[in-house]
Amino acid sequence: MINDPVELPAGTVAWIESITAESVLTLRRHVARREAWVVETGSDSMSKQSYFLRIDRAGAKGHGGPWSLLRETKIIQALAATDVPAQKIIAWHDELHLALQEMVVGDSELDQFERPQQHAVMMNFMAALADLHRLDPHTLNLSEYCLWPESAEQQALSEVYVIEGLWRSIPAPPTVGRLFSAFGRRWLENHVPQEYQHTVLVQGDTGPANFMFDDERITASVDWELAHFGDPMEDLGNIVVRDYFYPSSGGNLQPYFAHYEQLSGIVFEADKVKYYTVQQLLRSVMSLMYTVRTLKWNDEVAMNLGYEINCQRGMCDAIARAMNFPFPSESMPESVVKLGNDDQESGIVFSLIEQQLQRQVYPAQSDSFIAHRVEHINAMVEFLRRKACYGCHLDEYEQNEIAVMMGSSFDDLPSAEDALLARIESMDSIADEQLILKYLHARAYRLEDLMEPLVRPFANRFLAKVD
Questions:
Q1: How far is CA 252 from CA 54, 114, 211, in A?
Q2: Per-residue pLDDT tens for 299-320?
Q3: Residue 344 has pLDDT above 80, yes or no
Q4: Which of 75, 102, 129 is the last residue of a domain?
Q5: In a domain, 209, yes or no
Q6: How confident is the model at residue 43 (pLDDT cuts 50, 70, 90)?
Q7: Are 20 and 59 within one domain?
């Protein structure tokens, strides 16, 4: 028996060994936004068995929230008696909120494979999703964990309401995120689908990188924390988003959605899919606006900071497409670049730290997780160097852009953003939506340029065709 690593809740190793009847040989932190560990057990290194350990520390303290590991575990267990491929729950620890899961066979990074295999896997995945949506949701006995929508508006916005409820007592951080969040929220409210037809169990964050595959077949859909009762077109919108970050469709989702329609018997509705693409991205924009300001030292800091900006730009892309509105062609304005280049002294120290991390610290790491962390720390330092050189000049540029749009002058950027926020919250016409979208969309691209070291893993993404 090995002792618990300092990061794990006391008693974790003993519990795993009591469940598996084997000694824990190794425990390795898994690279993911939510805490997880790869566990190896066995009597010796020749008879190893692998498991996946999930931990919900907040849930163990009674603060698991609406997407707790307990809730996700109950949903996965409800699917065990169906044909839907999902990972198996080996055991649940009710006090420590630990879920010991099977180690699913296969790969998850479909975007790294050749197109013929991508196509075959995506077709098989759409069949699995059709199986999920054909289930009678009433037979799953999940009413304690999943609310039933009672109207078209509730079906379309229920998950947005959950996020709003989660952060209602906390003022929105005074960052640009509040503008993107408010704009996306208002746009969704203005365009709620009027038809209210099907209600199914949706995975809630489904698509590439959230399923495992072996050769050309799905071995399991994973990550069920956002599952709920909703519109099946919401899951298709989720696929658009997942494909945006992990391109696996060759840029065209039409054949996969047609295959889903044929197998599920549920009519594909392109406008709804575009709507739910916005909804899915807004949910990330809203959540990240708060969570990136409350990150702890052991969280994936760089990943979350970059992902926030990726989602802001992606949401604007999705709204522009839904409105048939032209995309901007933006990067750091030349005037800002010139001023920043004239002020390079402020970035010298960051540049030195960056070089030390790249040339000395990173090459010396043998642990893959620590090497990953050093790489992300280097990206944060690189971003801070860019911000020191260009940040204040870009703020002045944004202040002037808002002033021109609003027809008013402002003393500083926060007061300009306050005025724009008020206008967003009363936005009720297509003309207003287009005017504000034009500015926010361009600003999202400028932010991606400023934060290039952090957004690099998901740079240059585009939405695949859906119709």
A1: 34, 15, 19
A2: 888 888 989 999 999 999 999 9
A3: no
A4: 102
A5: yes
A6: confident
A7: yes
pLDDT of residue 85: 95
Report the domain count for the chain: 3
Amino acid 346: pLDDT: 66
Question: What is the domain extent for residue 445?
Answer: 328-454
∠ Cα 126 128 134 (to 5°) = 100
Residue 333: what residue type?
P
- Closest residue by Cα to residue 316 from 183, 197, 156, 195: 183
Task: Express each pLDDT in 90-141 by its tens digit.
Answer: 999 999 999 999 999 999 999 999 999 999 999 999 999 999 999 999 999 9
- Its pTM stands at 0.89
Query: What torsion, rounded to 10 degrees, do the Cα atoms 247, 275, 86, 166 define?
Result: 110
Indicate the residue among 289, 321, 353 that finishes a domain: 321
CB atoms within 10 A of CB 411: 8
Q: So what's the pLDDT on residue 45?
A: 63
The dihedral built from the CA positions of residue 393, 413, 179 and 290, taken in this order, carries a sign that is: positive
Q: Tally Cβ neighbours within 10 Å of residue 174.
A: 11
